[in-house]
Task: structure prediction
Amino acid sequence: MALVHGQVPGEPEKAAAALKILDGWHEQNARKEERTLHFVLWTPKGRPTPAKYEERLTRIMTHIRDFYAKEMERLGFGPRSINLPMEGKKLKIHLIEGLKPEADYGMSSGNEIKSECLPVLKKKGIDGGKETLVIFCNLANWDGDKLIFTHKSPYYAGGTFQGGTAWQLDSPELDVLNLAKKEPMMRDGQYGRISLGKHNSIFIGGIAHELGHALGLPHCKERPDEALRGTALMGSGNRSYGDELRGEGKGSFLTLAHALRLASHPQFSGSVKGMNLPVNSRIEELKITSKGKAIRVSGKLEANPPAYAVVAYFDPDGGGDYNATTATAVPDAEGNFSLSCDALPPGKPGELRLIPLHVNGSTGGWMSQTKFKYPYSVGRDGTPDLGTFQIRLAMAPFIEALRNGDREAAVAEARQFPQGKMQELAEKILERGRKATKSPAQADGKQTSVALTEFQASAAKVGWGRPAYNFLPEPPFLLEAGGEIFTTGIYGHAPANHRYDLGEEWKMFRGKAGMAAGKRGSVRFEIKGDGKTLWKSKVIKGGGLANYSVDVSGVKTLELVVDPTNDGTGSDWGLWLDPGLER
Result:
């Protein structure tokens, strides 16, 4: 099969193999149905609509539809794309006025705005909870004379193959006719002095990007071998859409990983067969190995409804999932699949997520969530380290037994572990119901170096759940952060405070502080001695670890504080790791 411009070797063959499974399933007892997107222009009470919004939004959405179709066809899926509801030559747009004036809405008003739209749509026969909505919010300000733009509009999205919502903005200068314009220069409230064309790239590209989220696509970054196409739409491609029209770059493109996901979306497949079927999947004979600077994955996928592809996200810690690169595989008739990736940033831990793509459109999870998650780390020389994964894999039956509340089975699994770290981890997790009885001040004078978790805290408070020592309060229970698994540690979901009576008996306090693996919050750690700050970390996010070594000579009360940052307390799973006292 001949490659077209910008195609990566192997992509057409994967698309053809996936379509054989996907289309073959949908053709049996077919349930064809053309689902369309539904569009709203929402405006605050009493505010005029943006000029010529119907004509402009028709051009914008037609351009985006054609972009998706072109990319799907380039990758071997044919010109599949979104479906637009048309009234003659214009996009069908529901004009809905809000209940309050403009001053009462802002960027965080997405759910409120949607709640105002749903009853109106319901009267028109549209169930907003089961469809994909695109809500353009009239919360932007454009001064055509001074060429100044600002906005306070919601601009985000989420969804699945069954439905979703994308909140966008509309403004009179947004028009695909302006994408190629290097002049005039304008002032954007967020991006500064840019050309009118670049401004349109950012916000029309933003519509295409957020629509991807509403269709169920997570973020991802282009791999080096994909970069000849430009910037991945679901990475930073929302800012490069149409750049090629001004000669300022290669523009945006769809990755094969996301084209595969879209291929089964009812908008793209034209089929609603099995949309509401429950899905089940498991991976047998899973092997994750490294060779050179690549991670290789193989296994046997069992899925119901069948899976036509597996997408892997290799997501380095930090930066959310924007930096995740992808690899793909199509399982054979027995479910066997294999894939590999060498686009792994050196010196960073990460998480591998394997997502089965079911023929009915389901991925078995919301956005990028999946039950198939595996840690890895990459050395500074770019060599993958799978030690953490191997521990997780070996301990999986033990963890699953605890997840199911079967302590007897967990103990039986633990007995099979060899002497060493895994046995120590299992023992500490199984001891989670026991409490230390002595304070550090009451320790045996012969103890010169001891884990802080061997002692009882005089006070303990955490922001979610209950205090936990040497384990996490939910599966997989392991104290994992920064690509490492630790045998001792203190769970401290922010805001958290732990106090220990040292009684002036200790000299040094050492250890690490970090964010629990898979959590995307941000926290700041602080160590206090008798109320005085002895050490304070920078802001720690996913994958971050900070070392501390603090002189506690003469300290009576040691205080460990975990504070949330300005983004709130969501997912703020701070951990004090290998905390140890020395005389």
Summary: The radius of gyration is 27 Å. Residues 435-582 form a domain with the Jelly Rolls fold (CATH 2.60.120.1060). The longest strand covers residues 280-291. Residues 1-5 have pLDDT under 50 and may be disordered.
